[in-house]
Amino acid sequence: MAAESTQFASTEFTNPNLEVLFSEKEIQDRIKELGAHITSDYQGKDLVLVSVLKGSCVFLADLMRAIDLKLTIDFMSVSSYKNELKSTGDVEILKDLSNSIRGKDVLVVEDIIDTGLTLSRLLDILGSRGANSIKLASFLDKPEPRIKTELSIDYTGFVVPNKFVVGYGLDAAGRYRNLPFIAVVKDPSAA
Ligand code: IMP
Ligand code: MG
């Protein structure tokens, strides 16, 4: 048991280019709070959680287990960053939803809102499909680089500074999604 936790703790420090911003414990505590809010807000609704792949898969997995309601999940995949560290503004649907959202109460589950370009395009697309309501849950909010300032996030995990972060589903060129915590990449060119 002791050996296990020592080994686990050391994973945070094996990469000198990562600085922990939110620990696994802080994240799990916050997810429980978000789950309780969503549970109370969606009483009697037909809730479907729409996860935007790949970044939000970890958040979705934890958040859905913190919501005490009958719900369904679905996935969408859009391209935005394409292995680079900056936003292009172009959004291409790589994978669409499997089921109709007509009449449903949709909660879009995202990993991070940065410029907001990806999400506002996605919300435009989903907005034309006859859902009863569409709201947004984002694990992280990085408000400084926001271009789509009108975008409102209904459920936010944490607000982050204008730095490139990884872990808990978020990647740098496809890596680090598996980290159970959020870290700042000190030197993005060496990520
Ligand atoms: P936006 O279109 O600029 O809001 O970018 C949204 C997407 O960019 C997110 O869903 C992430 O995939 C990616 N992204 C933005 N900031 C970061 C970051 O700090 N780390 C990892 N991915 C990020
Ligand atoms: Mg994403």
Explain briefly what this protein structure is.
The chain is α/β, with parallel strands linked by helices and 191 residues long. It contains 4 helices and 9 strands.
Q: Give the low-confidence spans.
A: 1-10
Q: What's the number of helices?
A: 4
User: Structural class from helices and strands?
Assistant: alpha/beta
Q: How many DSSP E strands?
A: 9
User: What is the CATH T-level topology?
Assistant: Rossmann fold
Strand residue content: 25-35%
* Strand/helix succession: HEHEHEEEHEEEE
Biggest sheet character: 6 strands, mixed
> Measured on Cα atoms, how large is the radius of gyration?
17 Å
CATH architecture: 3-Layer(aba) Sandwich
Mean pLDDT equals 89
Share of helix, binned: 10-25%
Q: Just give the CATH class.
A: Alpha Beta
What is the molecular shape?
globular
Total domains? 1
Read across the widest sheet, the strand sequence of neighbours is: 4-3-2-5-6-7
Attached small molecules? inosinic acid, magnesium ion
The termini sit apart by 32 Å
Task: Report on the architecture of this protein.
The protein is α/β, with parallel strands linked by helices and 191 residues long. It has one domain: Rossmann fold (3-Layer(aba) Sandwich). The protein contains four helices and nine strands, in the order αβαβαβββαββββ. The two termini are 32 Å apart. The N terminus is likely disordered. The chain binds inosinic acid (IMP) and magnesium ion (MG).
